[in-house]
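User: Some background: our group keeps a shared notebook of sequences we're curious about, and every so often someone picks one and asks for a predicted structure to add to the entry. Today it's my turn. The entry only has the sequence so far, pasted here. Could you supply the structure so I can complete it?
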Amino acid sequence: MRIAAHFTSGNGFDPVLVLTNPTASPTTVTVTAFGETGAAVSAGRSFTVPGNGSISADTSTITRQPFVPTVNGWLRIESQNVPLNGVLILDGNRALTSIPLQATAVDRMLYSQIFQTSDIATGLFVVNTWAIAATLDISLVRGDGTTSAQKSIDLPSYSKMSTVMRDVFPNAADQTSGYVVIRSSLPVYGVGILAANSGAFSSSIAPSRPPLRLTRLLRYRKLQLSTHPHMFRRARHLAF
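Assistant: Of course. Here's the predicted structure to add to the notebook entry:
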C-alpha cells in the first residue's frame, strides 16, 4: 500500500497520479481518494499497470466524475504485492510540485526547512489511517537548536490535518530558518509544502526520520514548559 498524504483538486488544482511497474508482469492497482474527514470521495478505481510500463490518471479518472471535484484529502494506492513506483503531481495551474507516495507510516518526522513570511508559507499535511485518534506533538526549532515553540494537536481517526505554520504557531512570523519536528502517538503519513502566497511556486518537503534522542529531548522540553515554566530558559539550551 502507498499513501499520498496531500491530494487537493478543484479551485484551480487538478493533480495527476503517475504509477510505474518495474516488473515484467502486468499488475492491478486500486486507487481510492479520501476527503479530509476520511470519507471516500468515490469507490476505489482499479487500473492495470503493464509490465515495465506506467499509467497516469487525473482526478476525474480516479473519481469517475465528468468534472474535477473539489477535494482536500489523500490517496490510497493498493497493489498486488508489487513494489510499484510513483508520484502524485500537484498541478496548481501556475505552479507544479510532486507529492511522494509513502509506503510506511512513521511516529516521528523532521521537516528540514521552513519559511513563514509575508510572501512564503510552509504547509503541513498529516494523515492518520488508524481507527483511533492520534496525538501530534509539534516542535518548532530554531537554526541554533533552541526550541521556539511547541504545540499538541489531536488528529481524529481516518482523517487529515491541513495547516500552515502561522496557524500552528501564530507568533512564529518571519521564520526563514530552522525546522519542524513532529512526534505522533501513532504512526502517520505526512508531507510539507513550501509555497508562495501568490501561487507562483510550490515545492514539497519530504520528511526525514529524526533520531529518537532528539524527539525525547523535545518531549522533555515540553514537560519542563508544562510543569516548570521558569526552567524553560535552561531546558532550551540542552545539547542535542
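Suggested note for the entry: The chain has two domains: 2-100, 106-235. Residues 2-100 form a domain with the Hypothetical Protein Tm1070; Chain: A fold (CATH 2.60.290.11).
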